[in-house]
Amino acid sequence: MVTKNRTTLQEYLSSRSREGIQNDGLGAVIMAIAEGSCQVQQQVRQAALADALGTTGETNASSDVVQRLDADSSDIFVETLSRCGQVAAIGCEEKEDPVIFAGDVGGGYIVLMDPLDGSSNIDVAVSIGSIFGIWQKKPGETVNDDSLLRLGSEQVAAAYVVYGSSTVLVLATENNVRGFTLDTESGAYALTHPDIKIPDNCTYYSTNEGNIKVLDEPTKKAITLLRDKYSQRYVGSLVADFHRNLLKGGIFAYPADQSRKDGRLRLMYEANPLGYVAEQAGGAASSGYERIMDIVPQELHQKTPLILGNKDVVDETVAVIKAG
Ligand code: AFP
Q1: Ligand 1, residues 44, 265, 302, 307: which to mutate, most atoms within 8 A of Cβ?
Q2: What pLDDT score was predicted for residue 21?
Q3: How many CB atoms lie within 10 A of CB 25?
Q4: Is the pTM of the predicted complex or chain greater than 0.90?
Q5: 236 C-alpha to center of ligand 1: Å?
Q6: What is d(CA 237, CA 264) in angstroms, rounded to the nearest whole number?
Q7: Rounded to the nearest whole angstrom, what is the distance from the C-alpha of residue 238 to the centroid of ligand 1?
Q8: Which of 21, 118, 166, 185 has the fewest CB atoms within 10 Å, counting from its CB?
Q9: Phi, psi of 73 (to 5 degrees)
Q10: What values do phi and psi take at 287, rounded to 5?
Q11: Mean pLDDT of 28-39
Q12: 67 with 122: CB under 8 angstroms?
């Protein structure tokens, strides 16, 4: 078996006194994410065979077209997270309102997720992913809709799963980022990336070059400087672009433009969790104006411009944008 002699995710979480995973119940939340992702990766890989591709005909709270797999993935993760008994509330990109577990049913964690990121790539067999930010409920708090509007800096963990040529779950806790690859034979995630730090050298920049004509002048200048220095790679699935840049060194940019003053990506489901992962791995995340993790959220589905990756390059890019 491939996982022989490798630490499984379950074993890693069981030794929770190490590595900053000391909070009761957090391991169960992460295992619920892992369990859900195994189901989702199976659905993703079988989608064409099961005639499960295409859209539901609806749009979500961010006005994006909902793919059938978006809706299925959302249901899967809500089910596994509910069942683990450690979650007080779930906010989901695909759901207008949060799912709140009242009274004794709920646990101590709040999870905000993009259950299937990169919808436009689903039908064409290109890498997609799932993203999760995890917060702890405040002591004595009775959870309501406002409880989900937390600062990114208050996350206790974040995770993402990339469904690529292999399925990889990356888990970040304070100062620790680790990657686990799914062994599809045993159904277990095994530790394959024990200590992820973003490399010092930035190799890639990832941005939608087609948007350059609608950028303001300072942002256009910042993107042009990236183009002059680095190789371009753009999958169009944030998780896949981020994962490559995290392992190889790189910067992702989806800045504000003339028609999208708040950018395209979601603060609570995409920018905060991946910003947290980036920071724990030595990188940085900015809106171009402020640190992502310091943005006070006004509403669950709000968008933000996002510049994410190697800290020195994020800082330089932000400086050019701010210089005006
Ligand atoms: P969905 O999660 O709605 O599929 O959106 C994908 C995404 O939010 C993100 O994964 C990509 O980085 C970005 O959109 C791509 O946007 P463009 O197609 O405008 O470049």
Answers
A1: 265
A2: 56
A3: 15
A4: yes
A5: 6
A6: 12
A7: 6
A8: 185
A9: -65, -40
A10: -85, -5
A11: 97
A12: yes
